[in-house]
Every structure is written in structure tokens, then in C-alpha cells.
Amino acid sequence: MRKGFRLWLPLLSLAVCLFNAFGYDDKNILLFLTSPVFWLLESRSFLGTWLDSFHVPLFLIYFLTLISWFLIGLLIDVILSVLFRRSPRRIHD
Known about the structure:
- The structure is a single chain.
- This protein is an all-alpha fold.
- The chain has one domain.
- 67% of the residues lie in helices and 0% in strands.
- It has helices at 5-21, 29-34, 36-42, 44-47, 58-85.
- Helix 1 packs antiparallel against helix 5.
- The longest helix has 28 residues, at 58-85.
- It is elongated and about 50 Å long.
């Protein structure tokens, strides 16, 4: 079985989350740049001003980051499988 993006993207995000949890990313810059959850939390047009990123527990951000990268990887795998399943039209003589 071929391991696709649904495996590698969550593994990379797990590495970023562990890097942050062990304190090597003390300003959360790497987590902020690689987490779709942080992107949504910091987008004022998406969530409005009623939710602040300081009120969301960090373990919830870690969990949602892993889930979101799994879903993004799954979507990429599905798109690639559909694209590669279609064979080019062959012209028969």
C-alpha cells in the first residue's frame, strides 16, 4: 500500500507540535506558520472579534492541527487518485 499525503502531512505537523510542546518554539512562530487552525484564529474576518487565540487551549490547537493536515492530505490523495485513474484517450487505427 502506497503511503500518501495523508500519512506524511500529519507526521510533519506532529513533529512541529512536539517541537513546540518541548519549548523549542517559544514564540510559536513555526506552529503559527504551519497550523491552519492558527490561520483561522488570527483571521478577524473569519471569526470576528469574539474569539481570541489566547483563550484556546494549546493541546486543542495541536489536535486540530493534526486533524486538519490529515484531512488536507486525504483531499490531495483523492484528487491525485482521480487524476491518475483517468487514462489518456488512445486513438486506434
